[in-house]
User: What shape does this take?
Amino acid sequence: SVLQVTEGEAVYDMAWYPMMSSSDPSTCVFLTTSKDTPVHCWDAFTGQPRGSYCAYTDAEELDSAWSVCFDNLGRNQVYCGFNNQIRVYDLGRPGR
Assistant: This one.
């Protein structure tokens, strides 16, 4: 089968959850980041969004991450690379 998700603009980066196991659907997720959108966490089976992680500039404008990755130690953290900074989000707490 083929999985398809739609982003509004060109995708800058994507990352699979490193602890993914097909026998545990809760671990079957991946991240994407694209121009002018928050970082999205997607369900790898259904293609439905599981959450979004937003970052804003000092002027309260949405900031797009250039790169994304999961924590490899199983701490359920999402690392997002922006211009001159890295922001860390809790995978279980989507939002700002």
Summary: DSSP finds no helices and nine strands in the chain. Strands lie at 11-16, 29-34, 39-43, 49-53, 55-56, 62-63, 67-70, 77-82, 85-90. The CA atoms of residues 3 and 47 lie 6 Å apart. The chain has a mean pLDDT of 91.
